[in-house]
Amino acid sequence: MFVGFDTSNYTTSAAVLDGNNVTHRKTMLSVREGERGLRQSDAVFQHTVNMPELLKNMTFNSLQAVGVSDRPRNVEGSYMPCFLVGVNTATAVARSCGVPLYRTSHQVGHILAALYSADKLDWTSSRFIAFHLSGGTTEALLVTPDKDEIVKAEIIAESLDLKAGQAIDRAGVMMGYKFPCGKMLDELSKQSDTEYKITPSMKGLNCSLSGVENKAKAMLEKGASHADISKFVLTYITNTIDKMLCGISEEFGNLPVIFSGGVSSNSLLRERMINKYCASFAEPSFSLDNAAGTAIFAKMKTD
């Protein structure tokens, strides 16, 4: 049995990998109504309160190793205080059970959880493209095998300003919906029959999404329906990701592609990427922030 912990800016999570089966335990951090995010101090406090509840009834009798994310990504200077809560918990569990503790990044955890969910863990032995689309990240990663970190992720395309999840949440909060707003905008967009012809704002393989918020605000002020605004925002993001992936395919070849992150649950995006690029997607529970990837990392480091 392997246990993993992840304390990101929006979710306290623990996961148990027993055989090939993963069991999730996670709690979303609360964001005050009308606000669009959390301060690190608030995130640390909520993680500290949430973690004992997640550990209730968990037993570690057959534990072999513990995994934890201790930083956003595997690059110098990558740091967020919220991950300290997970590290402290993981360290205590590993030491009390006398088993190894393996540290990785939140980003690697996302990739491994997505691959597990899509039954593609064998991809770790070759190159592939991983998109991570969330409130804090809009990136396309070239992923290659790595002896120490299992996989090495290099950013090859990203948003130069607003992130996809930020664009969605800001539009949703603007319309009066509770943060996070992805699920609401997805449902609203299905009620719109309006078709939008949108040319993405690109700089090479990178994109700009700052125009989404401004356009959504202008549409709202002119009385556009919430359904049409939602359809516009999600179409803009889908067209942008499509343009990014088209350029990546031209430069790096037709490598396998997997999507993770909360924005990847969007219906418009999923349909386009699957039909056009045969892309794989993590299941929603493994696409959002979770600790499954850190438990899987611990197992792969032990094997």
Q: How do the strands line up in the largest sheet? A: 3-2-1-4-5
> How many helix segments?
10
Radius of gyration: 19 Å
Shape, per Cα inertia axes: globular
Mean pLDDT: 95
Percent of residues in helices comes to 40-55%
User: Which blocks of ≥5 consecutive residues have pLDDT under 50?
Assistant: none
In terms of quaternary structure, the protein is single chain
Q: Count every beta strand, where a strand is a DSSP E run of 2 or more residues.
A: 12
Q: First CA to last CA: what distance?
A: 12 Å
Beta content: 15-25%
The secondary-structure element order is EEEHEHEHEEEHHEEHHEHEHH
Structural write-up:
There is one protein chain. This protein has helices at residues 40-55, 83-97, 106-117, 164-174, 182-189, 210-221, 226-252, 267-277, 284-287, 292-302, and strands spanning 2-7, 11-18, 21-28, 65-69, 101-104, 128-133, 138-146, 150-158, 201-203, 206-208, 257-260, 280-281. The protein has 303 residues and is of the alpha/beta class. The chain has a 5-stranded mixed sheet, sandwiched between helices. Strands 8-7-6-11-12 form a 5-stranded mixed sheet, sandwiched between helices. A two-stranded antiparallel sheet has the order 9-10. Helix 3 packs across helix 10 (292-302), helix 4 packs parallel to helix 6 (210-221) and helix 5 (182-189) packs across helix 7. The radius of gyration is 19 Å and the shape is globular. The two termini are 12 Å apart. The mean pLDDT is 95.
